[in-house]
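During the reporting period the student researcher (J.K.) took over the structure-prediction task from the postdoctoral fellow and processed the backlog of single-chain submissions. One of the processed entries is reproduced below for the supervisory committee.
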Amino acid sequence: MRILDRYLIRQFGFALIFSLIAFWVIFLVVDLVEHLDKFIDKDAPFFLVIRYYFYYTPYILVLSLPVAMLLSSLFSLGQLAKHNELTAMKSAGISLYRILLPMFALSFLISLFVIAFGETIVPLTYQKMIEVKTVEIEKGKRERNLILQNIFVQAEDGRIFHLSHYDTKERLGKDVLVQRFERNRLKEEIRAKRVRWKNNGWLFEDGVERIFSDASDELGKTKTDSLPASSGEKYQSETEKYEPFEKLFRLDLKIEPEALVRRQKKSDEMGYFELAEYVKIKKRSGQVVAKETTDLHLKIAFPFVSFIIVLFGAPLAANPKRSGLAIGFAISLFISFVYYTLIRMGQSFGYSEKLPPLLAAWAANILFAILGTILLVKAKK
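J.K. obtained the following structure tokens:
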């Protein structure tokens, strides 16, 4: 049986490598044709374009791996069925489950590898690819006066900054929320209509400051022009100090305007744990995190597409009537198209909170796992 396992894995492995290379080349050609005019307009050197696609390659491989896995299973098993090798194995008393076991085990290990690969290599190379594209190829083109929206930044001291709008030229932010946590407990919160960078500090205007428990002794601040009683009342209890203000100047906030204009990382540029921490911080500040939470669950769900799609495709491939490269390729494209469409639909439902993020990320996997199990049970043993 060890010889048979090695034979099956070798057949599947060769088909997988060939499929990955083929899909990688197709992806690169299509992307190059789409962006060729931009490369020419920007006078991008040849080696810079090579660097761009070098950093893009890990993301492409992870994205095309499920299609390659399905095509490999259909082709390798299809060839065995076409040449009656599967029939010979079954005649020797080997069940279909045992024949498919090494392929299932290999695809499961590949899914685990993709999780680790997506946690370490893919975020770094994807971020490098974005930097090469925006800074080096596009010459780092940035407008001097930009109105940024929905900025969310964590300062060095752990404070969370959220601004709905920020004018990079005037260094003026609107609808501001600043929070400081200690041991997952909110200690200080500042809400203001405006904030501006002035005299190496932040000047908050027209807002409210709340300080919880004994955190008031830790602040180094200067207040001016407190609101009159008609605009808001100050009060202090044993657990909270609430004080409206017209102006609040803070020198102790360890964040500068440059940090607010840095490009926020996308989910694809973060690993699972980095994105989980980002979701935790953003959720703790009261922000909506449906989009980020859905992407977080997809970082685990998507790698397992490689395993589930083999579970779905292997019983189909075991049928001699569906053998052959052309038929296998057509079936692979159709199934992959349906699978990816369902994944994107679930992702959209998760973003819009029509489905819980966990269910939205795993819905397509659950459906295909059920269908694959049914096909496997009904397949000729």
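The committee noted the following: The chain has a mean pLDDT of 82.
J.K. will present the remaining backlog at the next meeting.
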